Hints:
Alkaline Phosphatase, subunit A; globular; 19 strands; alpha/beta; nine-stranded mixed beta sheet; four-stranded antiparallel beta sheet
Amino acid sequence: MMAATxxxxxxxxxxxxxxxxxxxxxxxxxxxxxxxLGCYGREPSFTPxxxxxxxxxxxxxxxxxxxxxxxxxxxxxxTSLLPQHHGASIKRRRSLAPDHLTVAEVLRAEGFKTAAxxxxxxxxxxxxxxxxxxxxxxxxxxxxxxxxxxxxxxxxRALSWLEQVGQNPFFLFVHTYxxxxxxxxxxENLAAVExxxxxxxxxxxxxxxxxxxxxxxxxxxxxxxRHIESTYEAEIRSxxxxxxxxxxxxxxxxxxxxxxxxxxxxHGEEFGEHGMVGWHGHTLYDELLRVPLLIKYRDSWHAGQTxxxxxxxxxxxxxxxxxxxxPRPTVFEGADLTLYAAGGPAPAPYAVSVLEEGGSSIxxxxxxxxxxxxxxxxxxxxxxxxxxxxxxxxxxxxxxIKLELITEGPSIGAVAAPISPELRERLESLxxxx
Length: 434
């Protein structure tokens, strides 16, 4: 059992730990930048349901993903391991090895019912991240038809499963690619987030168009770029409505208060900050690595709290177990953020992330080292000026810390992932082509 009290943040009374949650709901919105949510400062906000949920949750201002790609990032989310240690990779067509331990396997061994409703693609069962789930379900698709992964039907399937769970404790994972490129918002959602746009670009932004822009075969104006961002944000508006339906369903089923509910993303999206538009997986800058993290504890413990120290996605699985009053497996590399929320120190000052094409980064609250480049985040939050020559000691210190963190990990290798024609079609529809 977690200690009853810990030191509170700053002056004031000591903070009691939350009562153990009975269930866990983990929501992953693929490709969601933190700065596109009202609760993270987006004005005007078009995410009222997520913003309302934030009022009952703890908000982590600075959460860093371990990879800017879906498979590798989710593998870190479930295993609490760095990508160098779990090995799952879409570029290398490598699956998570069965010998790795996932949080779903831990909970299923504890008697939890486990189910996942997701968008497939890089989360297809062949990639191994479904280990430990009784149900690992992706939307059906008719060959030859466009793939569309809307979040609302996924929420409906998840709620239908919950109606069958009964009194059993459960771990539910829900995921969507709805705001992942290509951007295909409804006219209503686009009109709600965009003022008058009279440029040449269509209301749906295809993979082909983004490729043409990013290979300089097509040029765009600042107004065109803002329109592309609006199509992305309009998709988020739809996701927000579906998330509101999920919360409403949990309340209707009398599952909301006693459950731990975690809202996050696997990575962000670039909109021209470092040369690409509507894309991810290609750099380790913050627009791709900084993601939202909202955690609603049982009975909305510490509702509305904001924590500003840096945390990592690989801290999520240990946090789940801590909030359920279950022990953290020794192989997990992350920390229980509940202790931080209750007034303890931030769990780790360094976050390591990996690019599948090669290269890695290490981030402290004030510095980022990407390969051999160094950025002073306090003076240059946009990561535009390499200061490695100006601060060689800082660069070398970060290099050595990263090397140590990588060397400490397990040596279990990933396994080859056979790609079926159907899965290849799905991956191509999301922009993942060989």
